[in-house]
Amino acid sequence: MSIRANIASLVLRYRLKNAVPPDAPVTEMRAFMDKVTAMMRTSPPRRVTVEVIDMDGNTAEWIAPRSSDPAKVLLYLHGGGYVTGSLDSHRALIWRLAEAAGCRALALDYRLAPEHPFPAAVDDAVNTYMWLLDNGISPSSVAIAGDSAGGGLTFATLLQLKEHQVPLPAAAVAISPWTDLALTGHSIAANVRAEAYLTPLGLRMASEHYLQGTDPKTPLASPLYGDHTDLPPSLIHVGSAELLLDDSRRLAAALRQSGVPTVLEVWPGMFHVWHAMAAWVPESRAAIDRIGVFLQGHLRGHSNAKTST
User: Fold this and answer.
1) CATH architecture label of 3-296
2) Which of the residues are catalytic?
3) pTM reported for the whole predicted model
4) In the chain, what are the domain boundaries?
């Protein structure tokens, strides 16, 4: 790990990890996340345009680097345990991913729990993907990606699309994904001391807020337990120091067992969604570049997209 990555890990561990109790009111958790991400956030540069749109009652943003191919789209689902997170908290990460991939991104502000429990987030993500298809974007020109809960939501969305026999996107990317809300991964206990940000209690509280009585092994909530046959090529990034390390390892194994071309990259020593610190941490920029290369290899541009999108 670089010196900057080590410093970032220490700041997360000793200044932020236990700053808000996991059982704090949701409003307090959201306010804290906004405060934290404000410190890491950088506004998109002039070469990136941001357009706010209404997505059937939800807010979404087109984030388009000047160099991007407008026919190629990254549908991005932010993290935050299904309880926190927003377009503001993730915009800096999303524009960098879009620029690395040479595409524009559609970032969705899906509904959050506990006000909107499972399966609201899945429904919003599926509806947004369908909106893209309805507006002339070819499935072969779309990838779905997300971090943490958004990484799990990425695969939940794919499972739901497959169930309804909707043409699937060209690729999927998950950054530190949360794929097992039953919290059965060995690394949740094994990596407690190494983890820089998440806590087992925090994960349990977020799971309860989102599920509200739903079986945590329901595949659309915990895609680890789904049928992964015929899902698109997938890239998974996870740090070796994460509580959710085994969520990634086991999902990658299940995808490969189902015949899905899958790349799992375990980054030594890295913390949860380290990609978000690209303004300071070289490993973050390197990881984003690798995701860009992966997406460039799978997205195909087409000219039938409606200009209204």
Assistant:
1) 3-Layer(aba) Sandwich (3.40)
2) 148, 242, 272
3) 0.95
4) 3-296
